[in-house]
Design brief:
alpha/beta; 11-stranded mixed β-sheet; two-stranded antiparallel sheet; 12 helices; 13 strands; 34% helix; globular; Acetyl-CoA acyltransferase; acyltransferase; transferase; Thiolase_N; acetyl-CoA C-acyltransferase activity
């Protein structure tokens, strides 16, 4: 039976919206990580059989199949195809699933999966222009903003603003500790940026975490989506810029090329969930992934659950009965940012390097997605 492994992973540092990466085009970011990840894998660009990239707001500089344009910019042979997909916040995680499935089917041996998003240069929802949700959809479902979905989650799981803010503070604290310890240095590739004064600098450290943040500051922030609600800018993910990529191949091909895999992809799951609550999908996706793999949550050594809003990981912890110490130990999107199309393989990259650093066996990644979906992946360190 064929097995699929990840042999290389890389990401850019994550820039705040309108921050360090605001002058860098998304296709340049994507081309940069594509060049870097093949170098880390030790393969030739011509050996890659497909490039699958996630990108949510596919318009303007991110339109016209950015996967294909970026790989051409990165110097890949014109014979290498590329495709861009939108599974909302889990787009690059889904890209990796599609890559694994192509390899398991025997159609391909080496695929790059990844994602990119410049929320500075291509604002979220700009691809929708002035369009509204169709009447037939709204007749069947109550379609609301994700922020209101987060409010509904907080109500359902009886999560107070103080609980959410305490979690958000911990996200910043963990992220700052990880940066201080140098945990992200190997996984990040520096990006050359032109600054306002025309000088050139290397951007190589996530700029989202705020050392000045305190629980009191977070408790003092106004709610954003509901006047009497609990969701603020401080306990929601940051809008961000960044890119990430992984090289996926069959285990047989890795052995043939003499490449040591970082991890094996054990289980891939995607589910639909309530499109009104919208953000609860990681709970069911995790349950299915554990069931299919024959594992329990106690078998998993580390997990990344995307911090779209603080109620998401907190509700997940409650329902799964997971160990809070194993969840997002290097911080999450509340502190580090959430470049939509890039987040899946960005989180996977961080988890892979943590598993290597700490010699952990099993890791789980779960991400909630717009309109009520979620992906979950279980990987095993080899």
């Amino acid at each position: 039976m064929r097995e699929v492994v990840i042999v290389a992973a890389v990401r850019t540092a994550i820039g705040r919206s309108k921050g360090a990466l605001k002058n860098v085009r998304a296709d340049d970011l994507a081309a940069d990580v594509l060049q870097e990840v093949v170098q880390r894998a030790g393969i030739d660009k011509g050996q890659v059989e497909d490039v699958i990239f996630g990108c949510v707001t596919q318009t303007a500089e991110q339109g016209a199949n950015i996967a294909r344009t970026a790989l051409l910019m990165a110097g890949f042979p014109e014979t290498v195809p590329g495709v861009t997909i939108d599974r909302q916040c889990g787009s690059s995680q889904q890209a990796m699933h599609f890559a694994a499935q192509a390899i398991l089917a025997g159609d391909m041996e080496i695929v790059i999966a990844g994602g990119v998003e410049s929320m500075s240069r291509v604002p979220m929802f700009s691809n929708m222009m002035d369009a509204h949700k169709g009447n037939r959809l709204q007749e069947n479902y109550t379609i609301i903003h994700q922020g209101l979905s987060a409010e509904k989650m907080a109500q359902q799981w009886q999560l107070s603003q103080k609980q959410l803010n305490a979690y958000a503070y911990d996200s910043h604290r963990r992220a700052l500790a990880a940066i201080e310890a140098g945990h992200f240095k190997q996984e990040i590739m520096p990006v050359t940026v032109t600054q306002e004064d025309g000088s050139v600098a290397l951007f190589a450290e996530d700029e989202g975490p705020r050392a000045e943040t305190t629980v009191d500051i977070l408790n003092g922030l106004k709610t954003v989506f509901q006047e009497d609600g609990v969701i603020t800018a401080g306990n929601a993910s940051q809008m961000s810029d960044g890119a990430s990529a992984v090289v996926v191949m069959s285990l047989d091909k890795a052995q043939e090329l003499g490449i040591r895999p970082l991890a094996k992809i054990v289980t891939r799951v995607v589910v639909g969930s309530d499109p009104t609550l919208m953000l609860t999908g990681p709970i069911e996706a995790t349950r299915r992934a554990l069931e299919r793999s024959g594992l329990t949550i106690e078998d998993i050594d580390t997990y990344e659950v995307n911090e779209a809003f603080a109620p998401v990981p907190l509700a997940w912890l409650h329902e799964i009965g997971a160990d809070p110490a194993k969840l997002n130990p290097d911080g999450g999107a509340i502190a580090l940012g959430h470049p939509l199309g890039a987040t899946g393989t960005k989180l996977l990259t961080t988890m892979l390097y943590r598993m290597e650093r700490e010699n952990l066996r099993f890791g789980l990644l779960a991400i909630c997605e717009g309109m009520g979906m979620a992906n979950a992946t279980i990987i095993e360190k080899l």
